[in-house]
Structures are given as C-alpha cells and as structure tokens.
Amino acid sequence: MADRIQIRSNGVSVRVRLTPKGGREAVEGWDADSAGASHLKARVRAAPESGKANAALVDLIAKTLDVSRSSVAIAGGEKARLKIVAITGDTSALAAKLNSIGTAA
C-alpha cells in the first residue's frame, strides 16, 4: 500500500495500467503486478491511436480526483499500457482521494 503513491514536490504520481477500447470510462481500483508493485487499473473507450487513449485517461483521472485537466499529465509510458501519471496539487488531499479508491475486482 505504501508504494501506491509517490509524493513529489508539487503533487503525486501513480502507476496506471490502461485498457484502451475498454467499452467504458472507469477507474476500476488498485491492483498489483506479479512483482507486487501497485497500480491503478483504468479503462477508456478511446483507441490507442494518436494519443486519444492517453487524453481520455487524463480526463478520467482529472474527473475521478476532481482536479483540473491541466493538473494531470502522463509522465511516462505514453505508448505502453503501464503509465506513470503525475498530478499536481495538494499532496495530502490527492493522496487521500487516491487511497479512497478501492481494490480492483
């Protein structure tokens, strides 16, 4: 659980496993890979072409955390399923919102 959220000087970052063309827009919850590293599972309707799925993920994270779209950025893994998403803002408030997201089914 402690490795879910990385605190930065101006916000937080999290790992997100994105499923493009997932049929709906949803943050499904926290999960872990085979090595035990935590990540959020998310799915978007957009296809992974021309950055559409990444833009949809930014919109989804902003809406989920109730922050502006400009506060959310893909900081790594633009062309991979596992991405690093950076969110600027109050670190304690963002961490609390992220920690309130349940475990993926």
List the defining traits of the structure above:
105 residues; 22% helix; 6 strands; alpha+beta; globular
Task: Please tell me about this protein's structure.
- By secondary structure, this protein is α+β, with helices and mostly antiparallel strands.
- Helices cover 22% and strands 36% of the residues.
- It has two helices and six strands, in the order ββββαββα.
- Strands 1, 2, 3, 4, 5 and 6 form a six-stranded mixed β-sheet that branches.
- The longest helix has 14 residues, at 52-65.
- The protein starts with a strand and ends in a 6-residue tail after the last helix.
Give the helix tally: 2
Total strands: 6
User: Whole-number average pLDDT?
Assistant: 93
Radius of gyration, CA atoms, in whole angstroms: 13 Å
Low-confidence blocks of residues: none
Beta-strand content = 35-45%
Describe the global form.
Answer: globular
What characterizes the major β-sheet?
6 strands, mixed
Helix proportion: 10-25%
Distance, first to last CA: 16 Å
Q: Which series of helices and strands comes N to C? A: EEEEHEEH
Supply the helix-strand structural class: alpha+beta
